[in-house]
Amino acid sequence: MPDEYKPKYKWRVTWPDPSDADSHKTDFCGWDGDICVGRIRFEAHGKMKNKWQWTGQGPVRGISKGRLMPQQGYEDTARNASAKAEDYYERLMAYNGLKTGK
Fold it and tell me: What's the confidence (pLDDT) of residue 2?
């Protein structure tokens, strides 16, 4: 798909779950070096079934002005969820006067 979002950061499986054969396809964390950019995970059940939840994160230290809101939400695809998490991370870093690795 030519219009599909291409993540800027490295996304890896959060952890494999032996009881869930598809966990390697449904739960990822994004990384900018050793800083966690965010997490995305597939909702298989409940009110948000078949959506991807995204949560923006950032460094543990150096956040002097605070976090931004909203820092989580839902999207239809993993790519769109990763775009939201990456956007949050970059806005958070800029707001706090910090540089990203990109």
Answer: 61
Check residue 25 and report its DSSP letter.
G
**Domain ranges in the chain?**
10-95
At 87, which helix (H) or strand (E)? Answer: helix 78-95
Q: Report CA dihedral (57, 73, 6, 100) to the nearest 10 degrees.
A: -20
**What number of CA atoms fall less than 13 Å from residue 14's CA on the CB side?**
16
The predicted-structure confidence for 72-102, as pLDDT tens digits, reads as follows 999 999 999 999 999 999 999 999 999 998 7
- What is the pTM assigned to this prediction? 0.88
List strands edge to edge, sheet with 51-56. 10-13, 27-32, 35-43, 51-56, 72-75
Joined together, the tokens standing for residue 12 give: 């890896």
